[in-house]
């Protein structure tokens, strides 16, 4: 089985009027930060907030009436499940979704809200997929694979058709890789329309499935691996997706977690839009490997925005820590009335905000008549933080960061 540009164009015709034709916009600020010329395709504006609707719907629209009556089933960490549940409900097709027990609650809740029968089983995608295959055989359902299916890949490839219609002179498409469905579809479409365009795959360093297969190795996630890019945390790339994508890919890069976190924060703070970890992987690639993209016209697919709100809050807070805008200072002084008031006055007088104070009199490295304070402050930037530390030192309370 193979995938052609005609398959992708046929999928684009089927999908017209059923999904959003999302905007592809130039980002001046992200371009300045990364050194590349950045266009962003906002697939988080789909109804289920991810590009997965394209592939799922393209598959459903080609099922026969008998199949539609029996129903469909899939295994997914979230976005494919929501897409399949939503469009199956629209088309009157019964749907069962098997999700790993580690799936973020928001994705589980949203999938159930679309009317799907949700089953939680397994610690990751591969375990959930095995259980889904078992249920599929027992109930005579049709399995809709999230990536290893030519019809699904064709639907995903419509993203690239739209991007090159909007920005014909794009030079590089950095594409997240999980199971490989998106990059197989995007690479097929893009290379057919513009043969000299570069396709760069991006994987979480903890789940290098495509990279491992390229090197003839068995893919193995790191022990205890937990990535914020759970949407592309797949242990084994699809055999069909790999066969289609491998000849078309120019490079594959691995992403460490801090770059994924920073990319999520940048989308929120710069573009005022929400990206999940996997959805921000293409931007993370530009941050991690600036020399490979500098000066190039890059099309980034913001693949999805379904991130748990607590995780998003944590990522944004951690970014403040990285930027030295949220800092914990430890101060040791005499345990006497007015000490904390004096320190607070210095901090407040220099325009910083005190977030939290911890007071410790029992630490053995502190004098018996002394006290230790851990004060978390919020500042404008690294320079402002240094100004406050210098002011505290000048008042006789030299701080150290903790």
TrEMBL record:
Gene3D superfamilies reported for this sequence: 3.30.70.260, 3.40.50.1100
Domain named ACT: residues: 328-402
Requisite cofactors: pyridoxal 5'-phosphate
Family note: Belongs to the serine/threonine dehydratase family.
Organism: Phenylobacterium terrae
Keywords: Lyase, Pyridoxal phosphate
Signal peptide (residue range): none
Assigned EC number: 4.3.1.19
Catalytic activity: L-serine = pyruvate + NH4(+)
Family matches, as PANTHER family: L-THREONINE DEHYDRATASE CATABOLIC TDCB (PTHR48078:SF6), THREONINE DEHYDRATASE, MITOCHONDRIAL-RELATED (PTHR48078)
UniProt xrefs under Pfam families: ACT_4 (PF13291), PALP (PF00291)
Entry GO MF terms: threonine deaminase activity
Keyword Lyase: yes
Protein name as catalogued: Threonine ammonia-lyase
């Amino acid at each position: 089985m193979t995938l052609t540009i005609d398959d992708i164009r046929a999928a684009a015709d089927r999908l017209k009027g059923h999904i959003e034709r999302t905007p592809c916009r130039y980002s001046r600020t992200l371009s300045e930060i990364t050194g590349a010329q950045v266009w962003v395709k906002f697939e988080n504006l789909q109804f289920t907030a991810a590009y997965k609707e394209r592939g799922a719907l393209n598959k459903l629209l080609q099922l026969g009436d008998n199949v539609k009556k029996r129903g469909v089933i899939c295994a997914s960490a979230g976005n494919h499940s929501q897409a399949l549940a939503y469009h199956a409900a629209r088309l009157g097709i019964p749907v069962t979704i098997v999700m790993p027990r580690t799936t973020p609650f928001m994705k589980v809740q949203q999938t159930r809200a679309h009317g799907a029968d949700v089953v939680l089983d397994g610690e990751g995608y591969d375990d959930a997929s095995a259980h889904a295959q078992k249920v599929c055989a027992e109930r005579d359902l049709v399995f809709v694979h999230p990536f290893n299916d030519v019809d699904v890949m064709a639907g995903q490839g419509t993203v690239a058709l739209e991007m090159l219609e909007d920005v014909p002179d794009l030079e590089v498409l950095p594409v997240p890789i999980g199971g490989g469905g998106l990059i197989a579809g995007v690479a097929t479409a893009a290379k057919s329309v513009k043969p000299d365009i570069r396709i760069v795959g991006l994987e979480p360093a903890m789940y290098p499935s495509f990279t491992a297969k390229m090197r003839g190795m068995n893919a193995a996630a790191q022990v205890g691996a937990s990535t914020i890019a759970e949407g592309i945390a797949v242990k084994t790339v699809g055999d069909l997706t790999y066969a289609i994508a491998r000849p078309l890919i120019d490079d594959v890069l691995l992403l460490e977690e801090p770059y994924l976190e920073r990319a999520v924060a940048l989308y929120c703070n710069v573009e005022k839009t929400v990206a999940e970890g996997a959805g921000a992987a293409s931007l993370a690639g530009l941050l991690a490997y600036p020399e490979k993209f500098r000066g190039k016209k890059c099309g980034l697919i913001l693949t999805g925005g379904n991130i748990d709100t607590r995780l998003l809050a944590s990522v944004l807070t951690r970014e403040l820590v990285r930027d030295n805008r949220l800092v914990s200072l430890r101060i040791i002084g005499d345990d006497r009335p007015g000490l904390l008031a004096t320190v607070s006055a210095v901090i407040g007088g220099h325009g910083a905000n005190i977030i939290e104070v911890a007071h410790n009199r029992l630490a053995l490295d502190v004098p018996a008549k002394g006290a230790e304070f851990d004060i978390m402050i919020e500042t404008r930037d690294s320079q402002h933080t240094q100004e406050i530390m210098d002011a505290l030192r000048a008042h006789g309370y030299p701080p150290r960061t903790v």
